[in-house]
Amino acid sequence: MRKLVVISILICCIQFNSAQKNDTIYYDVNWKGVSTKEFASYFYVLNESQKDQPTKEYYITGELYLEGIIPVNIDKNDANKSKFKGHLIGYYKSGKKKAEYYSNDSCKYEGTYTSYYESGIRESKGTFKNGKLDGTYYYFYENGNGYIEIEMKDGVYKNDYAISVIDGKRIKVKIPKK
């Protein structure tokens, strides 16, 4: 009987340890997977037992890069092919907020996207609909002297111009074709 109890405890410990397995994934500056920390710029710790829970990505030096992400599909070779959902907040190495946005259950941007200069001044603001910019997109000058308005529809320019607003003056600016 005593052996049975000991074996049962060992089996539970083994299952608990395997359930708590963390997998550290390293990425280079282009978000391509690398095998070791020495070649990495970012890393992500994947806890298999917390797949549907918000998690974090880090700069290789340990500072928080992105939080709030819920992994849906992790590509260890190319992070750009990974899929995430959730309310995401990105950070500069200094710890200041870089961007804030939402990725829906289909892993597409949805709702308001806002980015910031490292100084804390808002850099841009726009609205995403099903993964594409839709509505007025604003790009703000860091010196606070103005901004650019661009009308978007389904991720493309609605007009062939943008509006530059400096010191309250509105000027049409032609958008160059690619």
How would you explain this protein's 3D organization?
Helices cover 10% and strands 50% of the residues. The chain is mostly beta strands and 178 residues long. The protein has two domains: 21-104, no CATH class; 108-178, Histone H3 K4-specific methyltransferase SET7/9 N-terminal domain, CATH 2.20.110.10. The chain has a 15-stranded antiparallel β-sheet that branches. A hairpin with a 7-residue loop joins strand 7 (97-103) and strand 8 (111-116). The model is unreliable at 4-8 and 13-19 (pLDDT under 50).
User: Proportion of β residues?
Assistant: over 45%
Number of domains: 2
Mean pLDDT value: 86
Distance between the termini: 77 Å
Largest sheet geometry: 15 strands, antiparallel
Classification by helices and strands = mainly beta
Q: How many DSSP H or I helices?
A: 1
- SSE succession: HEEEEEEEEEEEEEEE
- Binned, the helix content reads 10-25%
Q: How many E-type strands?
A: 15
Globally, the shape reads elongated
Residue ranges: pLDDT <50 for 5 or more in a row? 4-8, 13-19
**Radius of gyration, rounded?**
22 Å
List keywords for this structure.
Histone H3 K4-specific methyltransferase SET7/9 N-terminal domain, 2 domains, 178 residues, 15-stranded antiparallel sheet, 15 strands, 10% helix, mainly beta
Give a summary of the structure in a few sentences.
The chain is mainly beta and 178 residues long. The protein contains one helix and 15 strands; from the N terminus they run αβββββββββββββββ. The longest helix is centred in the first third of the chain and has 18 residues, at 2-19.
